[in-house]
Amino acid sequence: MYYIVESNKTFEQAAIDLEAAVKRHEFGVLHIHDLGTTLRSKGIAFAENCKVFEVCNPGQAGKVLSTDMRLNMALPCRISVYTEHGKTLIGMIKPVPMLAALSQNASLVKVAQEVEARTRQMMDEAK
């Protein structure tokens, strides 16, 4: 259900490199949530770092939404760069099993497979 890669880079460098990889693969970064900073700003003791990248390929999103508008709740794709026990990790919930849990439409499986392959490439490049 998850695809997670470990990086030898610092948290910040992995985040910079992920953003660059997303753009190289013709996806856009819609927003970056800095969960670690947000939690600490609210007075919560949180030692780890975590940035969640909301990424989207408009063509693929259009195919999904024109087939099943309810899937807007699963978009955009999210890729996280985070630290855990001193390691930098990059991870996502795989689009194929997530879509299979939400829709039985066979035409969407191909879209999910394409998106999953490209997001895995982005993560592998960024690590």
TrEMBL record:
Domain of life: Bacteria
InterPro entries with a match to the protein in the record: DUF302, TT1751-like_sf, UCP021774
Limits of the DUF302 domain: 33-95
TM stretches of this protein: none
Protein name according to UniProt: DUF302 domain-containing protein
Organism: Candidatus Gallionella acididurans
